[in-house]
Amino acid sequence: MACDEILQKFKLYETRSNFYLVGYNKARTIWRVLKIDRLEATDLSIYEDKTVYSEAECYELLKRIDDGNRSTGGLKFVTKCYGIVGFVKFLGPYYMLLITKRRRVGNICGHIVYAVSKSDLITLPSPIVRSNMAYSKDENSRYKRLLCTVDLTKDFFFSYSYNIMRSLQKNLCEEKSGQVLYETMFVWNEFLSRSFRNHLKNTTWTVALIHGFFKQSNFSVLGKNFRLTLIARRSRHFAGTRYLKRGVNEKGRVANDVETEQIVFEDIPDEIPPQITSVVQNRGSIPLTWSQETSKLNIRPDIILHKDEEYKATRLHFDNLIMRYGHPIIILNLIKTKEKKPRESVLRAEFAKSIHVINKDLPEEERLRFLHWDLSKHARRDKKPLVALGRVAAYALELTGIFHCEITSEAHTCDSSGQTFGESSGDDETSTEDMTPTVSGCTNAENIEESEPASFQRKLAMKPIACQKGVLRTNCIDCLDRTNVAQYAYGLVALGRQLHALGLIDDPRVDLDAPLANDLMNAYEKMGDTLAFQYGGSAAHNKIFCEMRGQWKAATQSQEILRTIQRYCSNAYLDFEKQDAINVFLGHFQPQQDKPALWELDSDQHYNIGRRGHSLTEDLARSFIRRSFSDGNILVENSDPVSINNGGTENVSLGLPPSLKSEEITELSDSAPEISATDTGLSYSRFYPTLPGRQLFPDRRHTLLNELSTLDESHPSNFLDLDWLSSSGNSCEDDIFDRSSIINSTPGNNSMENVILTDAEKDETGLDHMQDNSGILNRDGTFTDKFQQWVATEGTFCF
Known about the structure:
15-stranded mixed beta sheet; 5-stranded antiparallel beta sheet
């Protein structure tokens, strides 16, 4: 579908027997009608009128429908909306989930990105039909309430014209559109909209909702303005809460899997930027089969590791990462290496072993790069973890690079693919035409009101200058607190390279004490808080960020204690219902009559109950919407939608009587929304004084490896342990509740005394070879020749 044909605004009308959803494009030149049967008690019948109307013709059609239904109350206006999220059925009628309010949060080269401000759940059958239905006692009291627990007004965003579920590089270098985009791992309403999309064989009426974080801000450097967009996309696969979703499942999907993208381009008023850059990094749970039992008596439950000598699920996970990002895959592991009571250290040793086993079967150029760094230990010891993390980020960026693209534009009508990169989206009440793109002068794009000039289309020619190959994957135990610090360090180093690529700065680095570094830290801190709320139930532990600002230590400790308590209460008392709500929303559980209810099942393992003994075809034929099959083999993503025949396509081009204006249909309907989301959102605005006088790099730039391609066959583990780097003291949980003993070592001690591995495991992984390589850094901060030689031959980096 061409850009100028995209339906962005909708009006819902009803008669006693049908709903009529009228959709129109931004320029109000294309009007379409969708008809939904209200006389069906338990089935869903939808008819799409293929006729394209003008505005006058559409209102003439509505007038005719109104006249034909006068005896039963005529045509009534229900609500204005901005897209269909999907349809859902529990044990009674079908419901339609609509976005009824939106707010503008960003603009990526003319493509507007929106967040959901309000959503409504509309019951489809008419009141007369519903009065004859036998409702289950759980229909309203539990299932509908569970669906509402997934609050679409918090951290869900979408775009009509930009494929926000994909990175900038993929959007510009890989052409994909339509149904295939909904099959990606980041579209959270894939299940709710699947059968509807498959029936109509298009995505005209639906929007793809992304869950995570979106923030766009305007900054300046050396008098030049640029726009920074920070996007976090949370995977819908193996999604859930902290203690209920851990590690990796049998299909290679990990818990808390989040892709973070940092887009930077020069902010030129009324113009498409001439260049644009982006960089992607990833976080996700340790890809081993492990779990923790939620306990109301133990704030730190034991870690249960289920060993698999072949590491099948771990292999599947890294195969998927390679499929998504290419080579190399650089793994930054931040968990502890030694504890009085082994918890994290158990996973650390097993994780190292799994990488060694996997690398044995890979050619040298495809081996995983494993970097271990006990952030907790080093943060306590040297108090400057970001300096060391910056060096790791530079190392990773040397291997992966960033995406950099030149853009040229001219006024043009979008091509038939609908993927032309550059379209401004209009406000709901705006229809005047203006060829000038909208550029906000606000510092924070979240405060932009939904007002913008009307449309323009531009044909943009993109010329990639450099592409990112591979990705840095960061993890700690929760992939929240320590991981967010490491991702900020990576983002700061990447920002310097992005600004340099755009020609905005001469030196490709940003100092830690620069105002721009503090602005970026605020953005990553807010992202960390948002992602921590989603997975962990509280804001992130930001001890390192607070120390950088010079915040009073007692205030920081109090804040961390409160967040620890909040996270504990959420995990122990709220997460079970939250997990049930996610499973209902994502389609991992579909209620059925005479089958156990969701809350009667003791594990996600049983959510396929009711499907045993039936084929996939039989199940789909039995219900228009059924359990989500998105958790299939991770390497065989289904891009061909399943077709379900339910209703048909109707061309209802009717004779047009005298014109009917929209204001003539003003009577409100009796179909009040069943569920309405709140308009509240999360806010984490903070300001703290900054600490002066620190740089991410020493004055003399350190030398980095060009590539890690010549690995020693005898030690394919790709494992390096750099004890000189820092580790996460980011979580106050560690300070308050950690009963483990921390081995105190001087900053110059680069031995491996903190690695819990047997002699046999050391022989397997080659870690014993690091014992003699204590000279990691020169005094000026550069890597020593001895260290560089180690990396070139062994390929693994443990710090």
